[in-house]
Structure formats: C-alpha cells, structure tokens
Amino acid sequence: MSLSAEIRLQYPKKNEGEFRLNVKFETPLEGITAIFGPSGSGKTSLLRSLAGLEAQAKGYVRFNNEVWQTPDWFLTTSKRRVGYVFQQQNLFPHLTGRQNINFALKRRKATDAQLNPESVFKILGIDSLLDKLPDEMSGGEQQLVAIARAVLNGPKLLLMDEALSSLDQSRKLELLSFVKELNRVSSIPIMYVSHSMDEVLEIADHVMVLDSGQLITNKPLMEALDTLSSRDSLWPGFGAAIEGTLVKSDKKYNLSQIEFPGGQLWVSSPSLDIGSKVRVSILARDISIACTKQEDSSILNKIEATINNIVEHHNPSFSQIHLLASTTKFRALVTQKSVDSLKLEVGNKVWMQIKSVAISN
After folding, report:
1. How far apart are CA 93 and CA 163, in angstroms?
2. Measuring CA to CA, which residue among 190, 194, 207 is closest to residue 150?
3. Checking phi first, is residue 155 left (phi over 0); if not, alpha (psi -120 to 50) or beta?
4. How much is the average pLDDT of 254-280?
C-alpha cells in the first residue's frame, strides 16, 4: 500500500507575498505517517490537496492503484473516501454525539470499511458522550466524537490536521493513545499533521518533513530524525531520540532500564513489559560532558561517547557538541567556557551525564 503524489500549489499570503507548495513523494500507508514542520511550512495545504479540498492544486495523486488526480482530471473529495479531522471541532451543534456519528454511518457505502461502531466507541471511550450535544462536551470530548465520525464514515485514509493542538498535555497524550489503538485495530492508514516533535515521537511510524513548502525528508521515524537533528530551526533543543528495548525493572525505585545501541538508560518506570520497544527523547541542555566517569554523582545515566563535531551556537556563550555512542547520535549544549576548560576536541572520548529522559511511548 502506498500513496504517491506530485503537488504544486501557490496562493497569496496576507502581507507575506506568495506561498508555494512544491512536493513530490511516495509514502507507505501502513501505520501512522506524521507530516511535521514549522507553522506556515505547507502541512495543511498538503493535507487539503490530498483530500481534494484545494481545487487550485496541480499535479497528480495516486492512492494504491486508484488515480485521484492528474493534470487533466480531478476526483472529488466525496469519491476519494477520506476522513478528515480538523484542528477545530466541527460537529453539527444541533445534533447529539450519536446523531453526528449516525450522519456518517448513513453516508458510507457497502464497499467501504465496515468498522463496528460499538468497537470504535469502546476504543475511544465515548459511550457517555453519545447522548450529549457538542456544547455539553469539553473540547477533547468533541474531538473524540469527531474522530469516531470520521472513522465510521468508511474512509480509505484518515487525515488529521493538528486535531489535538488545542488540548492540554495530559489530555493530548491520552487522545494520542486512542488514535494509535484505533489505527492498530482498524488498519486504516492515518496521516497526522503536527508541528510538535513530542507528538511525532509519540505517534509516528513514518515522517514527512516540510519546510517553506518543500519536502525535506520522507522516511521511517528514526531515520527521519537524522534530518531533524541537523536543522535546529525544525527541532530546537534536540539532544537525542532513541528507540530501545526495556530489559530490566527495579520495582523498589520504580525504574526501568532501556538498552539501545550505545548503552543503557534508566527511566521512570513505564507500565510496559520486559522486551517492549520504547522511544525516548533527550534535550541538548540535559546532557553535560565530563572527561572521566563521575561515580560520586546523583545522575544515574552516564554514557561514554566520542565527540565528532563542535558547532558554534547562535548564542556565542554556548557550543553544540555532537557525539556518537556506537551508532546513536547525541547533541549536547555546553558553555564555551566549559569547552575551553575541558579542552574538548573532535575525537575526544568523554562521558555524557544525562539529567532527564522523556518516554514517548
């Protein structure tokens, strides 16, 4: 399964001249693809073009063996059979949650994906919302109903345009878990627009990165992170993103150990089983450098690495230290004074002291 497209779109932007989207790609349709980039990079324009909502978009779009668009032909949005969840809740205000969802159920065809409504309600946890009007629900609850409506419309592809950006962090993480479970159970491919790297790390199997209307990378998540790590404007503060395996639990201290190419990390214990795959992220400012292993330190995570580059920072008081631990890349932000006093140079073997690790899943 794959989605391939070549899209050209341009339109005037208020007080900013003209915006141009010019992308060509083929991307797999298994799992969840995150479309990532800063505000104004063209993420929503790309999603709307795939959905057939941008009549001015030129080029072609092919979904598996179905042609959705060519320079001379255009398949309407309704015939593309996509589900679209917008950033702002767009439920019919005069209909209950159940009636909003029934509106979608009545429109799907016998040949569409026939997900069982009750199973979707269970995954999303919305049974208590079905008889409420939208103004009786919170923003997060409305988005859950909107997701159910989009999925039960029988889509071949689910498009989510920063659908959780207005929610607080705890609610957002909860809904991201629902979206992942929905993808796993339904097998409906999802394209998820976000400008939050935390969301991308939490949800994505594959990543497309846009910047100024251009496609910067289109790769599986962990491969794409190499591109992101080299572009400070796309991921400010990047230290490392690691995919490892949970190998040990310490119940006394509520800690778990993750093993990855280059070493081990202790993390605050997630509710995962031994052998589980885990993604973690580290900020550059949370990595300090020592020339020897510091045994008398409260910092648990110490990893030996080799400096492979020292880069000037936009703040002249600091330098970016790029390091390798086996094949895993790290980036530390340290003061220039520390660089000089420790005599840090490319090729030096040093010890990274990692103060904080965030679990992404």
Report:
1. 18
2. 190
3. beta
4. 90
pLDDT digits (tens, 9 = 90+) for 191-213: 999 988 888 888 999 999 999 99
Those residues whose C-beta lies under 8 Å from the C-beta of residue 289, and which sit 6 or more positions away, are: 321, 332, 334, 338, 342, 344, 350, 351, 352, 353
| Separation of alpha carbons 326 and 163, rounded Å | 38
What single letter denotes the amino acid at residue 33?
Answer: T
Contact of 323 with 307, CB cutoff 8 Å: yes
Say how far apart CA 359 and CA 254 lie, in whole Å. 14
**Phi and psi (nearest 5°) for 329?**
-95, 140
CA distance to 52, 60, 249, 264, 357, per residue, from 252 (Å): 55, 58, 9, 19, 19
Structure tokens at 9: 């779109």
The residue among 353, 240, 357, 354 whose CA lies nearest residue 291 is: 353
> Are 350 and 284 within 8 A, CB to CB?
no
Query: Which helix (H) or strand (E) element contains residue 118?
Result: helix 117-124
Tell me: pLDDT of 112 over 70: no
- Tell me the pLDDT band of 214, cut-offs 50, 70 and 90: very high
Give the three-state DSSP class for 104: helix
State CA 295 to chain mean position distance: 37
